[in-house]
Write a sequence for this structure.
């Protein structure tokens, strides 16, 4: 289990969530509902973890919505440890990802 994903789940459960401007644009661009992202978080699986990222520790997760698989990048600020920040979300391109969308080609 990803420690960052565990932290994100805890923060989201408490309602400590922020959506970045980029995240809002990407949700809209790929027709992804924030409610679906939040509801799917318990079943999400980590794809890539960036524990020592430049800005904040972050995790790319795979989950599904009403249309199909989605990737969501969550971060947790180093300085404060809260809130969980939805950095971006998108529908993974099958040409760039393995058939199960967990590995880059």
């Amino acid at each position: 289990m990803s420690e960052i994903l565990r932290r994100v789940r805890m923060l989201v459960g408490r309602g400590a969530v922020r959506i970045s401007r980029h995240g809002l644009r990407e949700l809209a661009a790929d027709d992804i509902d924030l409610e679906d992202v939040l509801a799917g978080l318990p079943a999400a699986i980590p794809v890539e973890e960036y524990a020592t990222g430049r800005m904040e520790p972050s995790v790319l997760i795979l989950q599904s919505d009403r249309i199909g698989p989605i990737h969501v990048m969550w971060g947790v600020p180093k300085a404060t440890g809260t809130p969980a920040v939805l950095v971006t979300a998108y529908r993974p391109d099958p040409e760039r990802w393995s058939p199960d969308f967990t590995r880059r080609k």
